[in-house]
Design brief:
With 156 residues, the chain is mostly helical. It is built from four helices and three strands, in the order H-H-H-E-E-E-H.
Length: 156
């Protein structure tokens, strides 16, 4: 859960700082806390069970866990689809150009592209979070680094 504020910082704040934006530094801590609060349910509901499943099936390695993290991240935004029902229309900015995303409940090409871009963004968060978790887990729980009790010195 600590990873998400770091991803937020790298993804949002670093490019903004590079462009010379004046960021409200007193709000960065609050934004990081919100990222943790937002990520926590997904980690607990999807991440922990997936990790336990991979561990029990002896498939807890970097790529399976990273893929599981990406899928878990993409599920959040992708489960509903880009349309919202009859009569609903939506539009917005697509890289500097106003476009329609949904017209009368039916997604347009830009609606599908925006939908896929959102899934990719959330999947990237899941992939990064799972990868960092695995690297920390491998460091602390890997060979010769387990949490098993160590015998006292001088005992047999």
């Amino acid at each position: 859960m600590v990873v998400q504020p770091l991803v937020l910082f790298v993804w949002v704040f670093v490019p903004a700082l590079a462009q010379g934006a004046d960021l409200p530094w007193d709000q960065v801590g609050l934004m990081s806390l919100m990222a943790v609060l937002f990520a926590a349910p997904f980690v607990l509901v999807l991440g922990v069970p997936l990790t336990i499943f991979l561990h029990r099936t002896q498939r807890l390695r970097l790529w399976p866990l990273a893929l599981a993290g990406a899928i878990a991240g993409g599920i959040f935004i992708g489960w509903r689809g880009p349309g919202y029902g009859t009569g609903f229309s939506s539009g917005g900015n697509w890289y500097g150009k106003y476009v329609d995303f949904v017209i009368d409940g039916e997604p347009t090409l830009y609606g599908w592209l925006s939908y896929l871009q959102s899934i990719a963004g959330f999947a990237l968060h899941g992939l990064v979070g799972a990868t960092v978790f695995y690297l920390v887990w491998a460091r602390w729980m890997g060979p010769n680094n387990s949490f098993k009790p160590k015998p006292l010195s001088g005992s047999v």
